[in-house]
Amino acid sequence: MGGILNELFTIGQTSKIFDVSVQTLRYYSKVGILMPHFVNPQNGYRYYSYEQFHIIDRIKYLRRLGLSIDEIRTIYSTPQTTDELKKDLDAQSKRLNSEINRLQKLVREVNRYKNYFSFQGNNDIGYVPYSLHKNERRLLCVSCKNKTREQYHIDLLKLRHSASYKGLEVFRQFVLILDINDLKKNIITPLKIGFFITDECSLKSSPNILQLPANDFICFQGKILTDDWCSDFAIKIAEKLGICGAAIACEYENSLLEYKKCVYEVEIPVDLWGSEMQSAGLNKL
């Protein structure tokens, strides 16, 4: 036995060489990935051969690449071929690319939310209208008709976290679809409330998803939940160009606790180049 042990390394020595715990090496043995080369029947001490070192090193490397213990066990169930290893590496590559895409989308979302809180209103220079072109957008929304402000907010939050939509990616910015005729009288009447959808989903025909086509808008800013706002100037310009649908009001929070003094950017759709807002039915809301 002495000759054999001179060629082997104890589990403690092996642990130090590879900077893995003794418990980890015992676990590899327990799940059938790597059995010790020799176990002393008298005291149960475990020994590893030099030839096994490259296996331990590869296991550590595969774990760093993200392969699971189960995958590694399957790989070593057929150690004479690399086919299973290549299959698992291909699957891991796809998982990592999917995670990269998810993280890139999350980075964009984080930056968008940071910019959302950096929005600067124009109240210091009055309610000066300006024009914007908006690309196509989609809104996850509920009706506000015949509901209190509290009721339609609760309805939206219930919808957002329901089984049908909890996996949908939305941007947390409250958006109101406003009655344009009341807006002309400086009255805020929400018809719908929602969140902008930020991913490409297959629920385009859902009754709770509103398609907002690309359009030109005359915009103004104001704290529309207070008396500190006026739409007169923007409405006059929009009427000359031809108002072609319901107004859209996007909230920009300036407090984490109090919301009534938030600035809204109000978009009034105009038929500058032949708008699609009419065909979208927003003029009928």
Automatic annotation (TrEMBL):
Location of the HTH merR-type domain: 8-78
Entry-linked Pfam families: MerR_1
**Which UniProt keyword terms apply here?**
Coiled coil, DNA-binding, Repressor, Transcription, Transcription regulation
List the coiled-coil residues. 86-113
CDD domains (alphabetical): HTH_BmrR
Please give the InterPro entries that the UniProt record associates with this protein.
Answer: DNA-bd_dom_put_sf, MerR-type_HTH_dom, MerR_fam
Q: What is this protein called?
A: HTH merR-type domain-containing protein
Source organism of this protein record: Liquorilactobacillus uvarum DSM 19971
